[in-house]
Amino acid sequence: MKIALDAMGSDNAPAVEVEGALQAVEDYGCEIVLVGDENRIKEEFDKRNVRSEKLTIKHASEVIEMDEPAAISVRRKRNSSIVVGLDLLKKDQADAFVSAGNTGAVVCAATLSLRLLPGIERPGIAIAMPTLEGTSLIIDVGANISSKPIHLLQYGIMADAYSRYILHKTNPTVGLLSVGEEETKGTDFTKETHTLLSESKLNFIGNIEGRDIYTGKADIILCDGFVGNVILKISESVAGTIMKLLKQEIRSSLIATVGAALSRSAFSVLKKKMDYSEYGGAPLLGVDGRCIISHGSSTPKAIKNALKFAKEFVTQQVNKHIVEELESY
Predict the structure, then answer these.
(1) Does this model's pTM top 0.85?
(2) Which of 134, 151, 181, 282 has the maximum number of C-beta atoms within 10 A of its C-beta?
(3) E strands along the chain, which residues?
(4) How do the domains of the chain map onto residue ranges?
(5) Could you report the per-residue pLDDT of 246-260, keeping only the tens digit for each?
């Protein structure tokens, strides 16, 4: 098992990536190739006295910054850490690729370099969200903002395979995000998608509304990338705001401070469930390779968990199962 890691992707690269990779090697035993500026990565190695044979470096002299246009940057910066890392995957010199860099660039480069799985027209980013019932998978959260009904059907098929083999759900339920539960509600796009899903082999339970996202009503939630990305960004903001408001109220009085101390274990559990670093990253489903996209503000823990999920993605042969399900259609 060898995983290519974009060492220049996160906001605090490459320190975060090196530390996360080191933890992953110790915990999971996989080999990791850090792709990026060799001198800067070696500096981080020296700080940590890294001598592991399972950590190697692949030099890439360029970085695609977060604010750069994806398609143009991928074509111009052929020696960027994203392009070079995906090239390792394409040439079978790595089994998976992880990046906390420019999401649009990763999607674009992966689609151009690796191509798509047979039968897939658009890739989708799937992200695990905490709910009252455990975890739900939302797809798409930003890979494709101009979706067609057939794309959402394909998202459902891919998410079904991922949920079965990675999240270990035997018969995951699938819900279509709309403005009402009735199949007559929504736009022409959602109505046509509803028809396709109803005729599929998926465990489709119909439309769900925004209020159902965190109740766990559906194991898989389907939406276009525009809506999904808005949900993701709002969720991040709400989670951060709740934690800040709690801290403000706790500090406002002695009684609240004492109560918080007595409830510390409950707060710890809540924080863990809301912590994105526990989930590591989001798989880019649909490309003919194994790609995990992490948050730009990833911590070493988030990078470590992203590498863990990448390893599971390979071990469980998720893409093979996706293709098998697509062939049945």
Answers:
(1) yes
(2) 282
(3) 2-6, 31-36, 55-59, 96-99, 124-131, 134-139, 173-177, 203-208, 220-222, 282-285, 291-293
(4) 1-120+286-317+324-329, 121-278
(5) 888 888 888 878 777
